[in-house]
Amino acid sequence: MAKNYNFKKLDILFVDDNKNMHLIVKHLLQAMDITNFRGCLNANNALKMMKKKQPDILITDLKMASLDGFELIERIRRGEDGCDPYVPILVLSGQTEIDTVIKARNVGATEFLAKPASVGSLYDRLVWMVENPRPFIKADEFLGPDRRRAMRGYEGLERRE
Predict the structure, then answer these.
(1) What averages of pLDDT result for each successive group of 10 residues across the chain (161 residues)?
(2) Which domains does the chain possess?
(3) pTM of the model
(4) Are 95 and 104 in contact (CB under 8 A)?
(5) Secondary structure percentages of the chain, helix, strand, coil, to 5
(6) 3-class secondary structure, 133
């Protein structure tokens, strides 16, 4: 694990239609001493919960019935239903194909973590989000974290100048 941060006061909203994942994520967060945890079994309820109280971080799956994680992220980034469009969004998904990761990034996900997650991997991703905040880009068709990553030391043909 990385640095020792105290995440105890973080307010986390977790969205996944799998009840077993709620139990797993709850235990992962409790192992990090995070007890302010709310869970939703669908994205529509998550939007309602966010209207009442904005989380510090949203953790969401992508594959869900009715409204999937991609649509949830898009609606949040548009500020629909009174949501804070700048909330950090961590995608926690078993769908790890490169096209899926890129699509999640392109709709406005802040970070991506593959299932199954461990306490260490989730903690490290939260630390990464704290230590490397991504600036937000506001354009005609996009509001979300800057999709570009610094690639220091990269010497390939597609190197940015």
Answers:
(1) 80 97 96 95 96 96 94 95 94 96 95 95 93 88 80 54 56
(2) 12-145 (3.40.50.2300)
(3) 0.89
(4) no
(5) 35, 20, 45
(6) coil
